[in-house]
Amino acid sequence: MRLTWIFDLDNTLHNADHGIFPMINQLMTQYIMRHLGLSEAAAQALRVGYYARYGATLRGLLRHHAVDPDQFLHETHILSELLPLLRWDRQVGDTLNLLPGKKILLSNGPQAYVEQITRRMAIIRHFDALYGVERVAYLPKPNPKPFLTVCAQQGLSPASCIMVEDSLENLRTAKALGMRTVWISSEPRRPCYVDVRIRSVRELPRVAWDTQKAT
Q1: 199: which of 71, 89, 142, 205 lies 20 to 30 Å off by Cα?
Q2: Strand ranges inside 74-133, DSSP E
Q3: What pLDDT digit, counting tens, does each position of 169-210 carry?
Q4: Domains of the chain and any CATH numbers
């Protein structure tokens, strides 16, 4: 069975918590303030609440406020503001090169962001396909539809896929669909829907060896 690795981007392949996520959160709060006429406190509460409920603030805004998704993504992912904040392990590219099989990136971020971040990291060449949220009908993980869209478009069986993520909710969905799961985390626990827990993507070649033996 030929393996396909499906990677998340933020906090999986780079450290989004360092600066990128705080900046995106700030831009999202400002967007909500402008377009919904809310105070900063109310906008922050709405942003956090929709993220917790739907897995992405955009999904809540689409469902309850009929915002323009492309405008939202443009105003909340200003690349000139985000790219200087990018921090990543320079060995990520070497690690990806060692992994057998196809590699796909599936992110809740917009397509331009996904392409520019992977290009700046010099890892874009390792991926057979990049999926921003626009390519999956603006449906963010952990909704199962993005996973199924990727599998359908790429001709994949979930059983041949390994999902690499920092989000447990996204991994729960992937496991329910039949994928194997790798959790990027320093936490000592390992929920039942996580097959392997590692601290960084540098450990993935070992996981590749284990999964090949399992098939």
Answers
A1: 142
A2: 102-106, 129-131
A3: 999 999 999 999 999 999 999 999 999 999 999 999 988 655
A4: 4-15+88-214 (3.40.50.1000), 20-83 (1.10.150.450)
CA quadruple 10, 11, 15, 21: dihedral sign? positive
Q: Which long-range contacts (CB under 8 A, 24 or more apart) does 114-119 make?
A: 114/9, 116/79, 116/83, 117/9, 117/14, 117/82, 117/83, 117/86, 118/9, 118/13
Burial of 36 (0-12, 13-18, 19+ CB in 10 A): middle
Neighbours of 55 (CB within 10 A): 21
Residue 36 near residue 64, CB atoms below 8 Å: no
**Strands ordered across the beta sheet of 180-184:** 129-131, 102-106, 4-7, 161-165, 180-184, 196-198
Total number of residues shown for the chain? 215
Determine the angle formed by the axes of helices 168-176 and 144-154, rounding to 10 degrees.
60
User: Mind listing the pLDDT tens digit for each residue in 19-43?
Assistant: 999 999 999 999 999 999 999 999 9
What are the structure tokens assigned to 72, written together? 């939202």
Q: What is the largest CA-CA distance in the chain?
A: 56
For residues 6 and 158, the answer to whether their CB atoms sit within 8 Å is no
Q: Are 163 and 179 in contact (CB under 8 A)?
A: yes
Of the candidates 17, 15, 12, which has an alpha carbon nearest to the alpha carbon of residue 204?
12
**Token pair 């609440």 is at which residue?**
49
